[in-house]
Amino acid sequence: MKEKKYKAKVSAVPGQVSEPEMLYAVRSNKITSDHLNNLKDLSGLKDEILSVSLNLNVKTFRNYKSKTVSMKPHLQEHVLALLSLYKHGVSVFGSQSLFNEWLEKPNHFFDGDAPMDFLTTISGIRFTDDRLTGIEYGDNA
Fold first, then answer.
1. Cβ proximity of 29 and 77 under 8 Å
2. Does 9 have pLDDT greater than 70?
3. Cα angle vertex 128, ends 90, 79, to 5°?
């Protein structure tokens, strides 16, 4: 049953980081702390890594994950953007593990840093998503 709920929520997430869709979802309050569990499942990342990306301490992240509560709009947007990025990344690379590997490696398009280091801001997530689109169309990223 949980798997169906997960798939339904993730299928409603845009396949790319899209401002209008993020704005609509946040304004209509469709993003809840349940989406954090979806993000954890989709990304396969540990709580410590996800909490850093979301600018939360681990305890707060785990509290959000453990019960369904509303989140502030900036956190809703961040969670939705990461879900969209992961959905796009898994689509481009074919698997969660290959996408995570790309995120963790230093990359010249990111000034020698790992793309993962850019996921703490919405603009960094958008930049990373743009690089994924470049990869789809033949860029060496």
1. no
2. no
3. 70
